[in-house]
C-alpha cells in the first residue's frame, strides 16, 4: 500500500520526528541540528534529569546569599566562592551542551546567551574580591545582582522570559501615563507648599509640616499608596477643615483614577502582545509539525498522496508520550482517521501536538467488592437508594457544611461541655460520611481520590478554573527576581545601619535600633528595628512590606534623604508595573476560561468518545471531576456492566499563553 525504501533509517527518523512533535507540544522553539548525533544530544538536553540538576544549582547559587556577608549563617568567603565556582561550572557545561545542539551562528545570535557575560563578569568579580580581601581591603560582590539573570535566561525559562517581555512591551505606554501622574504629583505638591507651607504648622513629633517641596513630593507620593493616611493630612486638617478637600481631590485623582489607568494601560498592552505571542507560538508549532510530517511521510500507491501510516504514528506517539495508555492512543488515532484508512495526511497529522495537549482522563471501572460478596444485598432497592443519596449534590453540600461548622467549634472554648459534645457529634457525622462513601464507592478509588482538596466546597471547586493557579508561577517569578536584586543592593547600601537586639537584650542602644541617629524617631518608638537589610531574609521581608511603601523613613535618618530614591524606584517597578502585569494576567486567564469555546479538535474527541460509548455522563460532572470519576467505581444504581475503560476530557485545553 505504501512505498517506503527507508526501513534502515526509520529509527533515526522516528526519533527526529518525535523531537519535532515534542517541541511543538511544549512550545519549544529551538533550531537544532538534525544530524543523528545532534538529535541524541538534543534529547539528552531536554531530559528531565539535567533540567532538574540545572535548577538545583540555580537555587544553590541564589541561596549563597544566606551564607555571604551580611549572612544569616556566616561561612568563610572561600567556601561560598568555591560553591559558586561549582555552580558556574555547571552553567557553563549546560551552555556548551546547548552550543553542541544548535548551529553556531544561531548560538551566538541567541539573546538569552547573555548569561555568558554574567558568568564572565562573576569570575572577574570573584578574582578582584579575593585579591582585595587577601590584601585586607574593603570589597563588595557587585555581581550578586546578576544571579537572577541565570534563572531568566536558561532555555527552560521561556515562560519567565515571556513575562519579562510583557513588562518590556507595556513600558512605553506606562511611561506616558507615569509622566502625567508625575506632573499631577508636582502640581499638587506645589499647591500644598503654597497653601500650607507658610502657616508654620508642626507634626505630632514637632517637626515642620509641609515646609520643604521635596518632602511634600515624597509624602504625597506615599499618600497614593495610603500608607501614611490620614497622618499626613491631620496637621492641615486640624488647622482648617477646608484643607480636607485638597487631600480628598488628590486621592481621587491620583490614587483611584491614575492607578486605575495604570492597570487599564497595562492590561490593554498585555492583551495586545499576548495575541501576537500566541500567533508566533501557533506558527512555530505548525512549522515543527510540518517538519515532523516531512520526516515520516510515505507515498500512498493508489492516490500518490503523502501520508503517515498508523504503524509509524503509533511508534511516534510512544516516543513522545511513553506513559500513554493503548486505549488512549487508539482513541486519538480514531479522531485523526475517522474513515479507518490506516493512514493520515498532513492536515490531520499537524493536529497531533494539540491532540496530545487535550487532557483526556482514562477511567477504569472497578466493581465494588460487596457486589461479588453480597450481590443480592448490594443491588437491592434500599442499597440503590443509599447510593443515590450519597452521590446527590445535597449530601455533599450538607457534609461540607458539617466540616465548616466543626472547624469553627474546634476554635471555640473546649471547656464548655456543650461545645465539647458538639465536636464529638460532628466527628461522628464525619465518620458516618466516610462509611457511607466506602459502601458506595470502590475502596481503592475512595482512598486515592478523597483527599483534602476534595473536601473543599463544591461551589468553590466548580467556579474556580482548576488549571489557572499553576500558571501563576511564571508571573510570580518577576517580583521574586526584582526582590532579589533590590535585596542585594539594599544590603550593600544599608547593612548594619539599623540593628535588632532581640527581646531579651539589655543593650542600652536597643531603644534606638543601635543607631543614635534614630533616637526619638517614630521608627525607633514603633520598634521597627527588625525591618533592616542586615541579611537576605530580613531584606525580603522588608521588601514585601515596602511593596506598600511603609516606614522607609528610618533609612533616610541613618543615611541621607536621597535614600528615598531606592524605595520609590522599588515601588514603581514592583507595584505600578509588575503587580499590574500580574493582575492583567489573572483577568485575562479568567476571561479566557469563561469566554473561549471548545475547539473543533475538542469536539471531535468528545464525539468519538460518545460514538464508542466510553463517555462519562455529563450530568455526573455537576459537582466536580473527582465525583464523576468515583461514580464509575462500584456503581450500585444498576446491575449493568460498564466498559473496563471510560474517557472524559478534563478541561477545554492546556493553556500555553503567558
Characterization of this structure:
The chain is mostly helical. Among the domains are: 31-154; 368-441; 468-595, no CATH class. It is 63% helix and 3% strand. It has 29 helices and six strands. The protein has helices at 10-25, 36-45, 48-63, 77-101, 104-109, 115-134, 147-153, 158-196, 213-224, 234-239, 243-296, 310-320, 326-336, 346-349, 352-357, 369-373, 375-378, 381-391, 393-410, 417-440, 443-449, 458-463, 468-494, 522-525, 536-546, 553-558, 564-595, 600-611, 625-631, and strands at residues 2-3, 298-300, 306-309, 343-344, 360-364, 645-649. A four-stranded antiparallel β-sheet has the order 1-2-3-4. A hairpin with a 5-residue loop joins strand 2 and strand 3. Helix 8 (158-196) packs across helix 23 (468-494), helix 11 crosses helix 27 (564-595) and helix 18 packs across helix 20 (417-440). The longest helix has 54 residues, at 243-296. It is globular. It starts with a strand and ends in a 9-residue tail after the last strand. The model is unreliable at 3-10, 447-472, 616-634, 639-645 and 652-658 (pLDDT under 50). Its main location: membrane. This is Two pore segment channel 3. It is found in: Membrane.
List keywords for this structure.
four-stranded antiparallel β-sheet, disordered C terminus, mainly alpha, 29 helices, disordered N terminus, 658 residues
Amino acid at each position: 500500500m505504501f512505498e517506503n525504501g527507508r526501513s534502515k533509517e526509520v529509527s533515526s527518523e522516528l526519533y527526529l520526528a518525535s523531537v519535532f512533535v515534542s517541541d511543538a507540544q511544549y512550545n519549544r522553539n529551538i533550531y537544532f541540528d538534525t544530524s543523528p548525533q545532534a538529535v541524541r544530544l538534543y534529547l539528552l538536553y531536554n531530559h528531565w534529569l539535567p533540567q532538574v540538576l540545572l535548577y538545583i544549582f540555580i537555587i544553590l547559587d541564589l541561596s549563597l546569599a544566606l551564607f555571604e556577608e551580611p549572612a544569616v549563617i556566616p561561612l568563610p568567603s572561600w567556601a561560598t566562592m568555591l560553591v559558586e565556582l561549582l555552580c558556574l561550572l555547571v552553567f557553563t557545561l549546560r551552555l556548551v551542551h546547548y552550543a553542541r545542539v544548535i548551529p553556531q551562528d544561531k548560538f551566538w545570535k541567541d539573546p538569552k546567551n547573555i548569561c555568558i557575560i554574567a558568568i564572565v563578569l562573576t569570575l572577574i568579580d570573584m578574582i578582584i574580591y579575593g585579591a582585595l580581601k587577601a590584601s585586607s581591603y574593603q570589597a563588595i560582590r557587585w555581581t550578586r545582582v546578576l544571579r537572577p539573570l541565570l534563572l531568566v535566561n536558561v532555555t527552560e525559562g521561556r515562560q519567565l522570559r515571556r513575562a519579562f517581555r510583557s513588562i518590556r512591551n507595556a513600558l512605553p505606554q506606562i511611561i506616558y501615563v507615569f509622566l502625567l501622574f508625575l506632573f499631577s504629583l508636582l502640581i499638587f505638591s506645589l499647591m500644598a507648599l503654597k497653601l500650607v507651607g507658610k502657616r508654620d504648622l508642626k507634626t505630632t513629633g514637632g517637626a515642620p509640616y509641609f515646609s520643604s517641596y521635596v518632602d511634600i513630593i515624597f509624602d504625597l507620593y506615599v499618600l497614593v499608596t495610603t500608607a501614611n493616611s490620614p497622618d499626613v493630612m491631620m496637621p492641615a486638617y486640624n488647622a482648617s477643615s477646608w484643607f480636607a478637600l485638597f487631600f480628598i481631590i488628590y486621592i481621587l485623582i491620583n490614587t483611584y483614577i491614575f492607578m486605575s489607568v495604570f492597570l487599564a494601560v497595562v492590561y490593554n498592552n498585555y492583551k495586545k502582545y499576548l495575541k501576537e505571542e500566541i500567533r508566533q507560538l501557533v506558527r512555530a508549532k505548525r512549522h515543527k509539525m510540518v517538519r515532523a510530517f516531512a520526516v515520516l511521510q510515505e507515498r500512498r500507491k493508489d492516490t500518490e498522496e503523502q501520508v503517515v501510516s498508523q504503524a509509524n504514528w503509533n511508534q511516534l506517539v510512544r516516543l513522545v508520550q511513553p506513559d500513554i495508555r493503548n486505549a488512549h492512543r487508539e482513541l486519538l488515532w480514531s479522531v485523526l482517521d475517522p474513515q479507518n484508512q490506516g493512514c493520515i495526511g498532513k492536515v490531520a497529522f499537524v493536529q497531533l501536538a494539540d491532540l496530545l495537549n487535550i487532557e483526556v482522563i482514562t477511567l477504569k471501572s472497578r466493581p465494588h467488592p460487596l457486589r461479588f460478596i453480597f450481590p443480592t444485598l448490594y443491588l437491592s432497592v434500599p442499597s440503590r437508594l443509599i447510593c443515590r443519596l450519597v452521590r446527590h449534590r445535597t449530601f455533599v453540600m450538607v457534609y461540607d457544611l458539617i466540616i465548616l461548622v466543626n472547624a469553627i467549634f474546634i476554635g471555640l472554648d473546649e471547656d464548655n461541655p456543650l461545645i465539647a459534645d458538639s465536636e464529638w457529634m460532628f466527628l461522628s457525622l464525619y465518620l458516618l460520611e466516610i462509611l457511607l462513601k466506602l459502601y458506595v464507592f470502590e475502596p481503592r478509588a475512595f482512598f486515592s481520590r478523597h483527599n483534602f482538596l476534595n473536601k473543599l466546597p463544591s461551589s468553590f471547586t466548580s467556579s474556580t478554573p482548576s488549571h489557572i493557579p499553576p500558571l501563576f508561577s511564571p508571573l510570580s517569578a518577576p517580583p521574586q527576581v526584582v526582590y532579589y536584586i533590590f535585596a542585594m543592593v539594599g544590603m550593600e547600601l544599608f547593612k548594619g545601619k539599623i540593628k535588632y537586639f532581640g527581646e531579651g537584650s539589655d543593650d542600652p542602644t536597643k531603644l534606638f535600633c543601635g543607631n543614635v541617629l534614630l533616637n526619638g524617631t517614630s521608627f525607633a518608638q514603633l520598634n521597627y528595628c527588625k525591618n533592616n537589610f542586615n541579611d537576605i531574609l530580613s531584606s525580603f521581608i522588608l521588601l514585601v512590606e515596602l511593596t506598600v511603601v511603609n516606614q522607609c523613613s528610618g533609612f533616610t535618618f541613618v543615611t541621607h534623604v536621597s535614600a528615598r530614591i531606592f524605595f520609590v524606584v522599588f515601588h514603581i517597578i514592583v507595584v505600578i508595573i509588575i503587580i499590574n502585569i500580574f493582575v492583567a494576567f489573572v483577568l485575562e486567564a479568567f476571561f479566557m476560561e469563561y469566554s473561549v469555546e471548545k475547539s473543533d479538535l475538542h469536539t471531535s474527541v468528545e464525539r468519538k468518545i460518545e460514538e464508542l460509548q466510553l463517555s462519562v455522563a455529563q450530568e455526573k460532572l455537576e459537582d466536580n471531576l473527582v465525583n464523576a470519576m468515583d461514580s464509575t467505581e462500584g456503581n450500585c444504581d444498576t446491575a449493568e456492566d460498564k466498559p473496563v475503560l471510560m474517557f472524559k476530557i478534563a478541561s477545554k485545553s492546556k493553556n500555553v499563553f503567558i
